[in-house]
Amino acid sequence: MDQRAQFGHQPRILAIVLAGGAGGRLGALTHHRAKPAMPLAGSFRLIDVSLSNLHHSGISDVWIMEQYQPKTINDHLRNGRPWDLDRTRGGLLVLPPFSGHEGEGFAEGNADGLLRQAAFIRDFAPDLVLVLSSDHLYRLDYRDVVDTHLRAGAELTMVTVDFDGDASNHGVVAVDDDGRVTAFAYKPEEPQTRIVAAEVFLYTAATLLDALGHLQDDRDGLGDYGHHLVPHLVERGSVVEHRLEGYWRDLGTPANYLRAHLDLVDGKGLDLADPDWPILTEPPQVVPAFLREGAVVADSLLAPGAVVYGTVRRSVIGSGATVEAGAVVEDSVLLNRVRVREGAHVKYAIVDSGADVSGQRVGAGPDAPAVVDRDGRRTD
């Protein structure tokens, strides 16, 4: 049954961006910043992807659920202006942990985080709740997901991808010919399909709130979405998929983070220059990138403020980073303000912001990159 008749109006959509996780899989790269604040392609942050998709999709009621290292996100978000979210009504709202009310304390997983905000969601009274992770690279018009949801009369529509990697790190989905989700396994050791949840979930608000209330007394807690919440709704037979056919990658591990950047420089990733769907961000207040005499640069992205004297191949050089004469950077990502000294050779590595690198830093390949922390120490 098409739900448009049920609502009797254009559905009111609340978007909740999950930005509270510690990002432990990224190791030293998230010791001092929240994962959504990680640089992307030299000029952006991971959270810019979901916020830009929301902007282009015309969704302007956006809540950011924070917990770990929130200042590093807030310094970037400011008042939401780059995404047209600085509004008198609606717009950007930050949800930090709190005390003194129902739902107080720190969340133990993203579904538990939704439970802690349930009273605020109920007061806002949306028809649909769009829940997004903030560590994936993809392009999607969420209005298409809404259309799928309403046409199917679903309680939950999950965006899925036919994944060419290790599905055991994701929620694995089985679907029938009509797009109904018939089975769901969260990070199974032996995945039964290649279809995985892209961590974009559209809930009918009443169903979400009812499910959170029903599950909140579970002795193990709600944990992440795949522990109890999504399986509960799948068992009810009211979950459908919306298949994402384009590029998608989880950037939550060093290998995936490097792989996504190499995809960009190889022309296999998203077109960051697409004028019809640009990634929006807080513009940097720095000078353009500068190539000094003798520099050799091939198949690379150079962020504003980068300075190259040496050799850079198939890499991403962050804002304010410097590659000295006699230094070589290959198949790597340098974050902001990195300095690679003369004689250093950085290959298959991710180098954290502000690091001073001398000597050789070589990873085992794109699937096992070296990770160099802010003090210039290899931590992988």
Q: How are the elements arranged and paired?
A:
Blueprint: H1 4-7, E1 13-19, E2 39-40, E3 44-45, H2 47-56, E4 61-66, H3 70-77, E5 91-95, H4 110-116, H5 118-124, E6 128-133, E7 136-138, H6 142-152, E8 156-162, E9 171-175, E10 181-186, E11 195-204, H7 205-215, H8 229-235, E12 239-243, E13 248-250, H9 254-266, E14 290-291, E15 296-298, E16 301-302, E17 307-308, E18 311-313, E19 316-317, E20 322-323, E21 328-330, E22 333-334, E23 339-340, E24 345-347, E25 349-351, E26 356-357, E27 360-362, E28 370-372
Parallel strand pairs: 1-4, 1-6, 4-5, 8-12, 14-17, 15-18, 16-19, 17-20, 18-21, 19-22, 20-23, 21-24, 22-25, 23-26, 24-27, 25-28
Antiparallel strand pairs: 2-3, 6-11, 7-13, 8-11, 9-10
The biggest sheet amounts to: 7 strands, mixed
Helix/strand/pairing category:
alpha/beta
CATH superfamily of the largest domain: Spore Coat Polysaccharide Biosynthesis Protein SpsA, Chain A
* Strand order, largest beta sheet: 5-4-1-6-11-8-12
Number of domains: 2
In the predicted model, the low-confidence regions spanning at least 5 consecutive residues are: none
Q: Can you tell me the CATH class of the largest domain? A: Alpha Beta
User: How much of the sequence is in beta strands?
Assistant: 25-35%
Described by the principal axes of the CA atoms, the overall outline is globular
Termini separation: 52 Å
Helix coverage percent of residues?
10-25%
Per DSSP E runs of 2 or more residues, the count of β-strands stands at 28
Q: Averaged pLDDT, please?
A: 92
What's the CATH architecture of the largest domain? Alpha-Beta Complex
Number of helices, where a helix is a run of at least 4 consecutive DSSP H or I residues: 9
For this structure, the quaternary state is: single chain
- Radius of gyration, CA atoms, in whole angstroms: 21 Å
Domain Glucose-1-phosphate adenylyltransferase/Bifunctional protein GlmU-like C-terminal hexapeptide: 294-365
Family: Belongs to the bacterial/plant glucose-1-phosphate adenylyltransferase family.
Domain Nucleotidyl transferase: 15-264
Protein name: Sugar phosphate nucleotidyltransferase
